[in-house]
Inverse folding.
């Protein structure tokens, strides 16, 4: 039997040292069933992070597996140079669900590529390289998307062809506006946006890109209507709004199918990835026909929207719609919050529990302050693993625990995970 230690040694020999990994020592996930995974040594874990919110339905879902198996003998690949019925059918479905009028879809293989393509579309359409992004943001690890990522731990270079300015977003805990109520906070952030326009740009900004709930940023959640107020200012200046729905899409927030819907707006461009394929490599961009068709020259995607991924994504989305996984996200998210909130309120090392639906975060701090407590976050994530629960982490300082189980999670699994996390929190005080 291969062990985790053996795989770690082989990994270090042939893969980059800068690949981030969880746990000390790291573990290798070998198989899964429902909401549980097994490592190569046979240890069983309740997976409450799902490959970074990617395993949206869980493991070995028959409907998805059968769709992949049905497509595999036909063709695995054709590229966009050929007509593909699975890709066309998937595009029709996503265009209809997007909320964008007269929508067209361009497929990629990841969220990074999707955001990269959205930026190319917006800057070309607007004939400007100026872009606005949110503080504490993360949009991918390509040369272009690193330029709009406002977290130093994920930014290996400052070199970029984009001119980027950052505005206040939904991360309130350490914001100078944190003491304000929702309306006042939103107004202050819009005022900041206006000032950035007037003082730090030449006026012809191409777009503002934002995550409705910041993912790597630690599930920072702005007030409802926040981006609606922002978009009014953008619209007044002809600036496009890109909604990065890579983590917030497909009903995970519970209240809405897309994160942008909490803000009473429709974005000009929408990007998606992760949960759309329940683990298959797929992403994409949605925009109006006018905007999408404005890109000059020829283009293609070698692997984007390939038949296998498209077939799996079709089955995944239809499962979501047929089984109301959005509603389950709302119910189970509420159940998890109710389980965790008393322990959070009593803790001296937890600043807050925040999020929406099945995107919940716990931010750890030094007792009696807002100083990040990275050690406490590390202890919780390791103790949870020992108890059989896998969760994620993030935040600017790496002190935020991210909890995002598959949207099919059951009450019993929520209760089991909640009990483990409560014990982990209490053990720190």
């Amino acid at each position: 039997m291969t062990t985790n230690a053996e795989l770690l040694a082989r990994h270090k020999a042939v893969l980059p040292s800068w690949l981030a990994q969880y746990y000390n020592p790291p573990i290798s996930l070998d198989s899964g069933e429902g909401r549980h995974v097994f490592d190569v040594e046979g240890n069983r874990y309740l997976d409450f992070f799902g490959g970074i919110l990617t395993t949206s339905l869980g493991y070995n879902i028959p409907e998805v597996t059968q769709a992949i198996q049905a497509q595999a003998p036909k063709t695995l690949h054709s590229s966009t140079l050929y007509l593909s019925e699975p890709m066309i059918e998937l595009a029709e479905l996503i265009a209809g669900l997007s909320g964008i009028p007269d929508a067209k879809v361009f497929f990629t293989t990841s969220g990074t590529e999707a955001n990269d393509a959205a930026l190319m579309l917006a800057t070309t359409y607007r004939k400007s390289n100026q872009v606005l992004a949110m503080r504490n943001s993360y949009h991918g690890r390509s040369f272009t998307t690193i330029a709009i990522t406002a977290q130093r731990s994920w930014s290996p270079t400052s070199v970029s062809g984009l001119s980027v300015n950052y505005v206040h977003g939904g991360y309130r805990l350490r914001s100078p506006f944190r003491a304000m109520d929702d309306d006042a906070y939103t107004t202050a952030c819009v005022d900041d946006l206006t000032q950035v326009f007037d003082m730090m740009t030449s006026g012809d900004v191409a777009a503002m890109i934002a995550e409705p709930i910041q993912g790597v940023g630690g599930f920072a959640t702005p007030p409802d209507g926040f981006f609606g107020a922002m978009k009014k200012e953008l619209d007044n200046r002809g600036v496009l709004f890109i909604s990065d729905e890579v983590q917030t899409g497909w009903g995970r927030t519970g209240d809405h199918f897309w994160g942008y819907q909490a803000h009473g707006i429709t974005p000009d461009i929408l990007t998606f990835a992760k949960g759309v394929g329940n683990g298959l490599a797929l992403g994409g961009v949605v925009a109006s026909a006018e905007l999408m068709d404005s890109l000059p020259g020829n283009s293609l995607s070698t692997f984007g929207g390939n038949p296998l991924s498209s077939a799996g994504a079709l089955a995944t989305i239809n499962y979501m719609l047929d089984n109301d996984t959005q509603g389950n996200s709302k119910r189970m998210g509420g159940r998890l919050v109710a389980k965790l909130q008393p322990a959070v309120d009593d803790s001296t090392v937890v600043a807050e529990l925040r999020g929406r639906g099945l995107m919940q975060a716990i931010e750890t701090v030094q007792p009696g302050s807002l100083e990040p407590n990275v050690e406490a976050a590390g202890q919780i994530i390791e103790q949870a693993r020992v108890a059989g629960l896998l969760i994620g982490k993030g935040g600017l300082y790496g002190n935020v625990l991210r909890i995002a189980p598959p949207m099919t999670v059951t009450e019993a699994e929520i209760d089991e995970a909640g009990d483990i996390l409560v014990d982990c929190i209490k053990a720190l005080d």
Remarks:
- The CA atoms of residues 136 and 426 lie 29 Å apart.
- Residues 66-322 form a domain with the Aspartate Aminotransferase; domain 2 fold (CATH 3.40.640.10).
- The chain is about 40% helix and 15% strand.
- The first strand starts at residue 29 and ends at 33.
